[in-house]
Amino acid sequence: MDLNTDGRRTSCGRVLVNKPELLSPAGDMKCLEAALAADCDAVYAGCDRFGARAYAGNFSSDELIDAIDRMHIFGRKLYLTLNTLIKPDEYKELYSFMKPFYRAGLDGVIVQDLGVVSLLKNEFGDLHIHASTQMSVSSAYGAEFLRKHGISRVVTSRELSLKELCEIRAHSEVELECFIHGAMCYSYSGMCLMSSFLGGRSGNRGRCAGPCRQPYSAGGIKDSYLLSMKDLCTIDILDELINAGIASFKIEGRMKSPAYVYGVTGIYRRCIDLITENKNESYRPSGNDRKRLTDLYSRGGISEGYYNKRNDKTLITVEKGAYKRKDTGDTEIKRKRFLLKGKLRAYAGQEMVLSVEPVTRPGMDVTVTGDMVLKAERHPMTQEDFKKQLIKTGDSDFMFEGLDIDTDGCSFVRVASINGLRRRALEEIKERITNDHKRSL
To answer: Which residue among 9, 16, 247, 256 is least packed, with the fewest CB closer than 10 Å?
Structure first.
């Protein structure tokens, strides 16, 4: 381990220069909302087919398209898990399965099957393809081989050390994605057939039964969790991983709760920001962070995985193989909203006009025209009357931070007309923001 001029540890001899992507699990829309609320950079999600978590909530095709749009509204990314081995008779379905997601602007696909890589490159040439951890990439040779065959990112094997990751970085230009938190596998990534042999449920088809989490007897030890790994937690070595030049930090957990996704993502978000934005200060995670991460979910404790250890018995739970989590109280997860500024003009005898502009993206305003404004016979609408209706954005992705109402003080408009005007404005602003990501075939 090298030291830079201010004495901080720098893996691979690098100085802190990159801010890695924080990639969170989204087993369903509630988990996606939790990841967004905790300020992730991207999520990975599965649809109802071809994913390595067949028992997760997963998304329907329509839900996934909505999720892609939602992530893009906030400037975030969504990667689809297409990370199972595909049977020959299933290939003909892949094109029609992928087409709507590609057109919606899907940011990338996580793949295990080399045949799928070939199909995606032929049919969806500009789509980013990530090699799943199920591909068991554990060397620079493997990473470079995949890069030359169209892979833009490799999700490395969980079993690699920090030194081995640095070797790959030194000899390949492919992006690396590494797990920083969550479940560990006793076997080599992507090479376990235990579930398939024992119960006919293949992990390579997304149906692992988790036989390594069961008690076994061996060498005089009875009914102990000899194959059950503690959960990975890298909160104490985040600076080392950042210095190693890892492009994406991945949190495991597509079968876990929104509270888990929100809590874990939020803690790692804060720590990553602290490290990368305060480069001249020493990084020290708090004991409360470790406790909170352990309480949210762990199997017999946490460890740093293989990054700085090899064949260490402290990585195994032995006595505690069951899923453990403490009641940390109700977690309120507020839906993330995209902030808008609005201006309404309502004068009797003229059409209503509503202009809407994103707060963080000036110049992307839209203007919509509504019904004719009537002259009030008794009770003209005030600015507050108009604002009260316009501000009701419901369960949409948007919220008004400010509303400027320009009215003559003698006007009347039906509530339904105001609601319709607002609805059309929000639909148009959503389309304008997401259109940059859309593709055609």
So the answer is: 9
